[in-house]
Amino acid sequence: MGGVVPERTAEAVTRAQAAIARHTRLVDDFPSPGIAFKDLTPVLADPEGLSAIVTALTHGCIDIDLVAGIDARGFLLGGAVARELEVGVLAVRKGGKLPPPVHAVTYSLEYGTATLEIPADGLDLTGRRILLVDDVLATGGTAVAAADLLHRTGASVVGVAVIMELVGLGGRDTIARGLGAGIPVHSVALD
């Protein structure tokens, strides 16, 4: 793994939090009435904001072999974080996006079910230490499902890193129940 310097990443967390506060677009009543959607697209479009967020997401990362970015915004972040850590990246895709054979997991959402997939051929994940990356941690169900999928292949998820955690939705607790209390969850910003 590349050189993650704690002072550098801690400083990046501060810069990233400022960029998030400055550039996040708030959209009332989306995707449904009563929801205040926080659109991080303008933050990621800002060069300084993107740079700070990518470095901030590596804060506390040690001994990572691979970064897994969760479909879809996790792809943007995962590749950049992997580059920062000097490791490879794996896209954890929504169901039906990859040719067979695939490893798949179907999990429950508050409004139905969803499926996540990764390739079953050409990729040996046995013993690999993986950092899961996504943009937002809400209820935690997608992160737990992605970790379950990776564990089934012999990999170990050793951390979860997100730009923003929606604290009131209990995602951190869901991850602790699903992956164990010892799995670090790093959120650049809390909401």
From TrEMBL:
Superkingdom: Bacteria
What keywords is this UniProt entry annotated with? Cytoplasm, Glycosyltransferase, Purine salvage, Transferase
EC number assigned by the record? 2.4.2.7
Kindly give the Pfam families that the UniProt entry links to this protein: Pribosyltran
Name its cellular compartments. Cytoplasm
What InterPro entries would the database entry show? Ade_phspho_trans, PRTase-like, PRTase_dom, UPRTase/APRTase
Where's the Phosphoribosyltransferase domain? 64-164
GO MF, any single term: adenine phosphoribosyltransferase activity
UniProt catalytic activity? AMP + diphosphate = 5-phospho-alpha-D-ribose 1-diphosphate + adenine
Q: Which family does it belong to?
A: Belongs to the purine/pyrimidine phosphoribosyltransferase family.
- Sum up the protein's function in the record's words: Catalyzes a salvage reaction resulting in the formation of AMP, that is energically less costly than de novo synthesis.
NCBIfam families named among the record's database cross-references: PRK02304.1-3 (NF002634), PRK02304.1-5 (NF002636)
How does this polypeptide assemble, per the annotation? Homodimer.
Which HAMAP family does the entry link to? Answer: Aden_phosphoribosyltr (MF_00004)
Q: Return the protein name.
A: Adenine phosphoribosyltransferase
> What species is given as this protein's source?
Gordonia westfalica
